[in-house]
Amino acid sequence: MTTVFTQLRRKVPVLVLLIGALELPFLLSSQQESLLTRALIFAMMAASLDLAYGQAGLYSLGHAALAGVGGYTAGLLMVRYGHESFWYLIVAAALASALASLVFALVSLRARGLYFILVTLALGQMVSNLAQQWDFLKTAQAEAVTGIYIPSLGLGEDWHSGTLYQFVLVLTALGLFTIQRIIGSPLGLAFRGSRDNEVRMEALGYDVWRYRVVAIVLSGTLSGVCGALFAFQSGLISPTNIGVATSGLLVLMAIIGGSGTRYGAFIGGILVTLLQFYANQWSMERAPMIIGGLFIVTALLLRFRPKVAGALRSLTRGRVSHAVA
Fold it and tell me: Who's near 132: CB < 8 A, 6+ residues apart?
């Protein structure tokens, strides 16, 4: 009984936060609603990346390409073949991204460490170049798939920026719930075991390679769903949306929020998306410098994290000792 009460008490703040977030459209302008919708989509992308990055220790620089597979699949099925059902398009995007993720895994997991990162970088760039060069992946004489719109749910919905935000928020909550269930399951424990001690896991009889394939496929499938949502919300998808720069931004989101933590990557995704938007609002010329500076600071913090953490602990202890005295 106590355990059930404790679990309910932990979920109450989350439910209150979700209900409060659903009411935000009554307080925000259309532009702010669209910005929050974009932030939720990218935050979910970062959370899906962290399933492989933070949980299984697989540092990928091709994650945006997997999201792009989902976005291009949904966009082409809508624009070229006239499919308008959200459920059909989102399932197609998830399946296409799962297949692409499997290919990524089978190729990249032949390498380790830095070479694994370089292979994912090359695969991601190949997908971006394919989208740029192949005419089938372009519409209306543009270097992108254009003319995408929000598909029908079959429920008589009236789409506008507020209802789209609420719908994406619900999908995001379901996605986070799915990720948390995976992390808390024996599968999630196997992911972390393969990350922390591959030799011991193999000695215990676990097929580490197979678990890593599963981690990449699950991560990429969720990312593909986010890519489809991005295409619906923005009205187009282009090679610049799925390139290495976007993949690097997703890694930055995961690191800033706290890779491997419960909601860190998701929070980092929201923060970086908002920072990028308002930096562009302030100065289009200086926005890349701000994001680049954030990359540098993050890299330095990772490099000197033990020293920084030790200094902060010493400072905290000093203040506590002074207060007690």
Answer: 143, 239
Band of residue 287 on the pLDDT scale cut at 50, 70, 90:
confident
For residue 143, how many other CB atoms are within 10 A of its CB?
13
> Alpha helix locations (H) across the chain?
2-22, 30-53, 63-79, 86-108, 114-133, 161-184, 186-196, 198-203, 208-234, 244-257, 264-282, 287-303, 305-324
Q: What is the DSSP letter of 241?
A: G
Q: Report the predicted TM-score, pTM, of the whole model to 2 decimal places.
A: 0.86
- The answer to whether residues 73 and 93 touch, using CB atoms and an 8 Å cutoff, is yes
Does residue 141 surpass a pLDDT of 80? no
20: left (phi over 0), alpha (psi -120 to 50) or beta: alpha
> CATH classification of 18-282, choosing from 3.40.50.720, 1.10.10.200, 1.10.3470.10, 3.20.20.140?
1.10.3470.10
Q: Where are the domains of the chain?
A: 18-282, 287-325
Q: CA 176 from chain center: how many Å?
A: 11
For residues 34-57, average pLDDT: 93
- Interatomic CA distance for residues 279 and 289, integer angstroms: 9
Average pLDDT over residues 200-213: 92
Phi, psi torsion values for 58, nearest 5 degrees: -105, 105
CB atoms within 10 A of CB 319: 10
